[in-house]
């Protein structure tokens, strides 16, 4: 079994500061990266910024800045966000790096040598904001302005010499690829959208521009810059030192296991990207997952609408782990979701402060008073003890399946159920009434501690900062978290001195 795992976020377009949509993609990717690591995988987790194209050039011109200096400034905000979100990424790539240009030029040369690229003239509708071309059927006229139906972005008519990729030749081959790899696109609704689009007919794709110069030059014709999406998508290869296919990173991690993206860039990743790769005789990634948008009210966030939700502001008010937990639990993964202050506060109070934090505090306080803050002897488990402890081994294979299939909500639903069950167990067993039966009291304490350990391991990919505080009281460090130990009912050793634990989550006081 291959124990390497390569996961990527989209590389973010730094024409403006990060918003909640960027944070969501990164947090979800980090969840999977951490989860696969504690399952024993050697994970390579990539994020970064896409810094070429007309949109960037215009934004830099508006600020009267050199495009690279503009990108240096904005890209830093995305790198800083990675730190703020406590991402565990191995690499942060920028498309202005020389390693990336080398990869893009190599891929272009292969496609050109194979006759997959030709020079012609482009005329059609183009969105600078989306860096995308649209057909007549994909635009609408709103108050005299032509806009993309899907994104709402303004489009303009473009006529210029352009290189084209023979995408039309790949229509049947892509359908064949999707049929042979039914899990390449998830969720199912996104796959159906893509297949329907491909079957409706593919036209050759413009892959260069002459009207601006901020980008990687076409190797054989310096008058042209390579279209931003052929450029940008190649980052997934350049981060692995492509075209050096003998490089250890490339050999270990390509093809990527999971490209995690927003649904608005699905077409580029699920149609153009595999077509480019197949045409260059490079294996496509194993999966592209197109998640929904984080909405502001009922609308997608955009700079033009002025409805950007700032993740830094929410983290400042509520903390990072509560935001991570809320986004992972409350957004139905694959669908659109939004942030509500009321729901966020309810989530913090109910799930984090009451169900999890309070469970840890109650059990540890009782342990402090009645077992000298040490792990007691487990003595003999009753049927009730075994029943609740065995839930983890009973559902172990399902939990692995959830992570493999990106069933985020089923994974976290199991956690919520077990938190309720653990609290109910401690209440029902009433260890405070068993002080005369010390053996039984100690067993209840032991079981409760084991339940906290098990559920905290499951929570670690979601709320790593808070989970590590709990795991450290058991002497478990971040590099030693082993997912498989949730099946072990006797992991904790008698006499182990437990560490102190401060309040994990403060309840949000609501004004009447």
Would you kindly provide a written description of the structure presented here, covering whatever features stand out?
The structure is a single chain. This protein has 19 helices and 18 strands. Strand 14, helix 10 and strand 15 (288-291) form a beta-alpha-beta unit. The chain has helices at 20-38, 54-62, 67-84, 98-113, 171-180, 188-199, 228-233, 235-238, 248-253, 266-279, 311-318, 320-330, 341-370, 383-389, 391-394, 396-404, 408-429, 438-459, 464-473, and strands spanning 4-8, 42-49, 91-94, 117-127, 132-134, 139-142, 145-148, 156-165, 185-186, 205-206, 208-209, 217-218, 221-226, 258-262, 288-291, 294-296, 299-300, 337-338. It is an alpha/beta fold and 512 residues long. The longest helix has 30 residues, at 341-370. The strands form 5 sheets. A 6-stranded parallel β-sheet has the order 3-2-1-14-15-9, with helices on both faces. The chain has a 4-stranded antiparallel β-sheet with strand order 5-4-8-10, covered by helices on one side. Strands 11-13-12 form a 3-stranded antiparallel β-sheet. Helix content is 46%, strand content 15%.
What's this entry about, in short?
With 512 residues, this protein is α/β, with parallel strands linked by helices.
Summary keywords:
four-stranded antiparallel sheet, Isoleucyl-tRNA Synthetase, Domain 1, six-stranded parallel sheet, 512 residues, 19 helices, single chain, alpha/beta
Radius of gyration: 26 Å
N-to-C span: 57 Å
What fraction of the residues are assigned to beta strands by DSSP? Answer: 15-25%
CATH class of the domain at 341-487: Mainly Alpha
Strand count, sense and barrel status of the largest sheet are:
6 strands, parallel
Considering the protein shown, what is the CATH homologous superfamily of the domain at 341-487?
A: Isoleucyl-tRNA Synthetase, Domain 1
CATH architecture verdict of the domain at 341-487: Orthogonal Bundle
What characteristic shape results from the CA principal axes?
elongated
Mean pLDDT: 92
Strand tally, please?
Answer: 18
What structural class results from the helix and strand content? alpha/beta
Number of helices: 19
CATH topology of the domain at 341-487: Isoleucyl-tRNA Synthetase, Domain 1
The helical percent reads: 40-55%
Q: Spatial order of the strands in the main sheet?
A: 3-2-1-14-15-9
Low-confidence stretches: none
């Amino acid at each position: 079994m291959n124990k390497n795992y390569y996961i990527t976020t989209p590389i973010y377009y730094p024409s403006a500061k990060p918003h909640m949509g960027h944070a969501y993609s990164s947090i979800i990717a980090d969840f999977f990266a951490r989860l696969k690591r504690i399952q024993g995988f050697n994970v390579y987790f990539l994020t970064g910024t896409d810094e070429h194209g007309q949109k960037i050039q215009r934004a830099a011109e508006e600020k009267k800045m050199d495009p690279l200096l503009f990108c240096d400034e904005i890209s830093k905000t995305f790198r800083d966000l990675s730190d703020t979100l406590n991402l565990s990424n191995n690499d942060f790539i920028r498309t202005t790096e020389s390693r990336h240009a080398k990869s893009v030029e190599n891929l272009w040369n292969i496609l050109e040598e194979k006759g997959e690229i030709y020079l012609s003239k482009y005329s059609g509708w183009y969105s600078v904001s989306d860096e995308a071309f649209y057909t007549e059927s994909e635009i609408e006229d709103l108050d005299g302005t032509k806009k993309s139906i899907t994104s709402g972005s303004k489009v303009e008519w473009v006529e210029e010499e352009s290189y084209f990729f023979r995408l039309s030749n790949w229509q049947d081959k892509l359908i064949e690829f999707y049929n042979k790899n039914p899990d390449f696109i998830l969720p199912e609704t996104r796959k159906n959208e893509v297949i329907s689009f491909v079957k409706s007919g593919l036209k050759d794709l413009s892959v260069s521009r002459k009207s601006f110069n901020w980008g990687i030059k076409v190797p054989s014709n310096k008058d042209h810059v390579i279209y931003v999406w052929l450029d940008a998508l190649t980052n997934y290869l350049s981060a692995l030192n492509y075209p050096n296919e003998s490089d250890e990173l490339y050999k270990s991690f390509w093809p990527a296991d999971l490209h995690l993206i927003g649904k608005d860039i699905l077409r580029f990743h699920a149609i153009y990207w595999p077509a480019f790769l197949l045409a260059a005789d490079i294996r496509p990634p194993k999966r592209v997952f197109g998640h929904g948008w984080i909405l502001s009210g009922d609308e997608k966030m955009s700079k033009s609408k002025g409805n950007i939700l700032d993740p830094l502001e929410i983290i400042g008010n509520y903390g990072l782990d509560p935001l991570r937990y809320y986004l992972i639990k409350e957004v139905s993964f694959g669908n659109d979701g939004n942030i509500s202050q009321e729901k966020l506060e309810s989530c913090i109070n109910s799930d984090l402060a009451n169900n999890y934090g309070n469970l840890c505090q109650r059990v540890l306080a009782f342990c402090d008073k009645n077992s000298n803050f040490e792990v007691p002897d487990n003595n003999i488990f009753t049927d009730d003890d075994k029943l609740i402890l065995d839930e983890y081994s009973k559902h172990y294979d399902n939990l692995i399946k959830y992570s493999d299939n990106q069933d985020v909500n089923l994974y976290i639903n199991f956690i919520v159920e077990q938190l309720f069950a653990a609290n109910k167990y401690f209440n029902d067993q009433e260890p405070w009434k068993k002080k005369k039966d010390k053996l039984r009291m100690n067993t209840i304490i032991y079981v409760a501690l084991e339940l906290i350990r098990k559920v905290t391991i499951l929570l670690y990919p979601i709320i790593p900062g808070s989970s590590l505080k709990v795991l450290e009281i058991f002497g478990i460090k971040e590099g030693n978290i082993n997912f498989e130990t949730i099946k072990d009912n006797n992991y904790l050793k008698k006499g182990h001195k437990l560490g102190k634990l401060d309040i994990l989550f403060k309840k949000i006081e609501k004004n009447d």
